[in-house]
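Bench notes, afternoon.
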Amino acid sequence: MRSMTLPELSKKLQQIDFCMMTTCGGKTLSTRPMSNNGEVEYDGDSWFFSYEDTRKIDDLKGNPGLSLTFTAPPSLLGKPGIFIAVDGNAQLIRDRQEFEARWTEGLDRWFPQKFNTPGLVLIKAHALNIQYWDGDEHDVIAV
């Protein structure tokens, strides 16, 4: 069985609008939906905008480990969709130039002042381990 490559996985991720991000605050796991930017070619790093004053940011300050899960629906012919699990570490970025470079149309739905929104922070989620299942195959992709 041939393993999927990171560029092949990137094409699959571009078709998924949202993922679930899990963080750990102390002994408690917390999961929430996050918008996946399908316009960006995935290279092992995912980028998410957030407000600074949130539980996920507090969690990541104490423990940078996180998990991202992505799911695509079944195909029209009934083949199961792909399931992707990413384990990684987060870096919190507060640089306006990075905000501008990563900004995409539609984010103003959540951040009305765009990259000038007070309390804005960018989460860079760097993958350490990627697993996928697509109904026909499953494997781990080295990053």
